[in-house]
Structures are given as structure tokens and as C-alpha cells.
Amino acid sequence: MRHLHGKTSLVSIILPFKNEEDYLGECIDSIINQTHAQWELILVDDNSTDASPRIAQNSAKNDKRIRYFKNPNSGVIEALQYGFKQSTGNLISRMDGDDIKTIDNLEQLVYAVSPGKIAIGLVQYFRSDGLGAGYSQYQQWLNDRTKTNNSFAEIYKECVVPSPCWLAHRDDFLKSGGFESNKYPEDYDLCFRFYEAGLKTQGTVGIIHQWRDHPTRTTRVSKHYSDNRFMQLKLHYFSLIDLNPAQELVLWGAGKKGKAIAKYWTENGILFSWLTDNKNKIGHNIYGTVLESTETFDPSPTHQVVIAVADKQGQLDIQEKINGTKSDVFWFC
Fold first, then answer.
1. Which of 25, 96, 230, 320 could make an S-S bridge to 164, C-beta 3.0–4.6 Å?
2. How far apart are the first and last CA of the chain?
3. Order of all β-strands in the sheet with 100-101
4. What letter would DSSP give residue 126?
5. What is the Cα–Cα distance from 71 to 78, expressed in whole angstroms?
6. For 151-169, what is each residue's pLDDT tens digit?
7. Which domains, from first to last, does the chain contain?
8. Are 262 and 287 in contact (CB under 8 A)?
9. Residues near 254 by Cβ (< 8 Å), separated by ≥ 6?
């Protein structure tokens, strides 16, 4: 195994928290118990009104590697920004106050990370009253992507870098803009900026992070994590990174997501062809574009195809049709 020493292996873990008294102690203990001992934990209290600041302060008193700060502003992005300014490590990571690291989390991430590559870990969702099917499916999809070491190939489907389970060299983190962006959801935005910076991913061997789901989890209750915010990020970064004016842009699908994409492109003056297999929509003019039948489409290397079809069987049918065509394909579903 590759070993790093001294400051080169010091991991700065930025942990913003707000009202996490039920989980924060267990989270901090999981960091204290790491087999990789070269870390600093920067706890940033985002204006909590419960006992979690006291838990954090007590931990800082008992372990010199832990430091407690109060967010001078408000919001998780501001807390992350402030926490990073206090960091000194060559390796940067983030943690959420309601999650748990396995004992070898940092050891595996430090082993996997290298300049130009972000280390990302296999994750396991859990919930005290049982995990829903949606989170189970996302966990499986995310871990499958992590194992390929090419996670960014499906970045337009969903966030492919698990927000509390990644590790980056400070230079790569800064190259990507760090926590400075003010866009939500902040974890997906950072994922896109890692991608934009040309970084690669390297997955861990085993599950190293336990990701807790609960009714008051921020991603469930905050407007910053609505489906509409995710779509806005996808469209912004697609236009910025992957849209190629030299190719013909094609949108496949006219459901809710397809219409959102078409509306954005129309409002931003982006020309495209629009396909659907819904016979009731073929020939209709929506947002100034007439929908065409998928049966008439002959994919080729001159096309950029954005897929916005939610139906799983429909996705398989599309995959079969475009296989071997060398079209640039981007899955937004």
C-alpha cells in the first residue's frame, strides 16, 4: 500500500452542521476512530438552536485535531467557505453531521487519491425505519458508477460524486473553484466543476461511508435541493462544457424533463430538433419547435443527443437504437 507522511497526508475535513444533536456525536466518533490518523476536523456551526454546538465544543476540547467555529454568516455554502479558510491540509474532504465513516474511510481515500484524480468511496444508505426503494436504487447506481472509475460519463443523470465521501488534493480542489460557488445544490455544482476542470475519479475497494436518511435531512426539506434546481445545474453546465455548435443538437423525449430542457434551450437561443414517440405529440409546436417522430431519426456522429425519457424500457430501446452510431449521447434521466 502507498503511504504518505507528514503534511502531504493531512486530511482537512470540513463539516458544516445545523441542529444535528441526535447524530453529531456518533459522526465525530467515527472520524476519531479512523485508521488514518493524520486529519483535522473543522466543525462549523451554522446557527444551530439545539445542543449540537455543545457536542462539537466538547469534542474540540478532548482532541486537538478538532476545531470548532461558528459560521459568521448563514447557510451551508457560507459554512463550507468559512471552514475551508481555516484548513491547513494538503488533502481536502467534506463530511455531513448525520453520517458515519467506516473505520478505514480515510485510509482508503488517501490510498486512492492522486494529483488529477478525486478519490470517491462506495456508500451505503441506511435509515432507522427502513430505506425506500428510490434511495436503494440510487445507492446501487452510484456505487456502480464509482466502480468504473469513470463516474463523469453519467454526470447529467445525477450527482456522481457522493458529497460527504470524496477526497481531493488541495491544488485540484482550488483549480475547480473549491466551495466558492454560490449555486445550490452545492454538492452537484462542485461535482460539475470537478468535471469541468478535467479531473478523473478513482473509487475505493469497499464501502467506506454510511449515508443516513431521515425525515429532517436537509436535502429532503430545503428548497435548495428541489428537482428544478438540479435541472438548472445540468442545463447550465451542459451549455458551458459539452454543447458543441458544430454538431446538430437533438432532444429525445417530451415529458416533464424534456419540456424543461426545451424551454431552457428556446429561451437561450439554442437550436435543436425535438423527438418523441408519443403519437399525440408528433407534429405539435411547443415553445416554437415542432416535435418529430423518433422513427424518422437516423443517429450519426454529427449529432449530440440529449435523452430525457423516464421510462426504463424506453431507455433500453433508445440505447439499442443508438449503440454503434457514434453519436454523442447525454442521459438527463
1. 96
2. 38
3. 66-70, 39-45, 11-17, 91-94, 166-169, 117-126, 200-212, 100-101
4. E
5. 7
6. 999 999 999 999 999 999 9
7. 6-227 (3.90.550.10), 246-331 (3.40.50.720)
8. yes
9. 262, 274, 276, 278, 281, 286, 291
